[in-house]
């Protein structure tokens, strides 16, 4: 008899005890998911739905601006996730050291996480104005010509990504601080006795032992980047042109235009994209952690 069967026989809870949770899960997750899959295969106008097979998906991948949204989503997610991981780790190392006003600096770094995303988007839109914004005004005092942060198609997406980094790096830093606090000081004491430099301590001790926090930050920031919408919509609405459109903004525009079936297909593609990227990545990172 397997161990699983023994555990199930010893369980003090009958199966019906789990029914309320299963019902809530079914109503809030299974039913909307199955409904979305169905409506993505239809020409849907809210009052009626005509089954058209995979036509919505074919149309999605045949429209250049829709494909542009898909590519931008991947660029945005990888950029914000990578920057949050690197900057969050460096800030956490700095804020766990013996520095002046450490508690105040931690609060300062975490504060943007608490502010409304829409409010931050509107504020930075004003600050990044090409002629009236304070950022370009400060650059002018240094004799540096300020670019069109949100009006230049080559810069718009990355400008929003930098604002996303400013808003989200506090949460990444907090997770890394918790990971660093769990490392025993004995490792560093032994390394110092052996003559290890600060960089060697960071590379050989901090980086491997903070791996669980790194996996958490990468996973959360990557999911957030793939699903990002509110900040991009508040700052550029996908423009100029389609240069900063992501899948979520494309889906919203299709809903506004009345293409409900096509926009639902976009939702299904976004769901599949997140699952395809996050699940194998999480399994791979956790497997490497166990091996180490």
Automatic annotation (TrEMBL):
Belongs to the binding-protein-dependent transport system permease family. One of its GO terms (cellular component) is plasma membrane. Keywords: Cell membrane, Membrane, Plasmid, Transmembrane, Transmembrane helix, Transport. This is ABC transporter permease protein. Its main location: membrane. The chain crosses the membrane at residues 15-39, 74-96, 108-128, 165-188, 209-229, 268-286. It holds the Pfam family BPD_transp_1. It is found in: Cell membrane. Gene3D superfamilies: MetI-like. One of its GO terms (biological process) is transmembrane transport. CDD domains: TM_PBP2.
């Amino acid at each position: 008899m397997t161990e699983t069967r023994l555990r199930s026989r010893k369980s003090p809870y009958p199966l019906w005890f789990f029914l309320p949770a299963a019902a809530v899960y079914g109503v809030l997750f299974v039913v909307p998911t199955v409904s979305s899959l169905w409506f993505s295969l239809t020409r849907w106008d809210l009052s009626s739905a005509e089954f058209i097979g995979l036509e919505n998906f074919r149309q999605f991948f045949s429209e250049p601006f829709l494909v542009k949204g898909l590519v931008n989503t991947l660029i945005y997610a990888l950029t914000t996730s990578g920057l949050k991981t690197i900057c969050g780790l460096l800030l956490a190392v700095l804020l766990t050291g013996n520095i002046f006003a450490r508690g105040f600096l931690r609060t300062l770094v975490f504060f943007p996480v608490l502010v409304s995303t829409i409010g931050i988007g509107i504020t930075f839109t004003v600050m990044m104005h090409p002629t009236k914004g304070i950022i370009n005004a400060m650059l002018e005092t240094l004799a540096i010509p300020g670019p069109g942060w949100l009006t230049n198609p080559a810069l718009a997406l990355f400008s929003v990504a930098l604002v996303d980094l400013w808003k989200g790096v506090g949460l990444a830093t907090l997770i890394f601080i918790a990971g660093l606090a769990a490392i025993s000081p004995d490792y560093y004491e032994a390394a110092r006795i052996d003559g290890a430099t600060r960089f060697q301590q960071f590379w050989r001790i901090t980086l491997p032992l903070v791996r669980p926090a790194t996996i958490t930050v990468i996973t959360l920031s990557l999911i957030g980047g793939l699903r990002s919408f509110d900040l991009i919509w508040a700052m550029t609405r996908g423009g100029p042109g389609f240069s900063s459109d992501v899948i979520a903004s494309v889906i919203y525009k299709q809903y506004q235009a009345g293409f409900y079936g096509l926009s639902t297909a976009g939702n299904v593609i976004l769901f599949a994209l997140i699952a395809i990227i996050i699940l194998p990545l999480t399994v791979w990172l956790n497997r490497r952690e166990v091996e180490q």
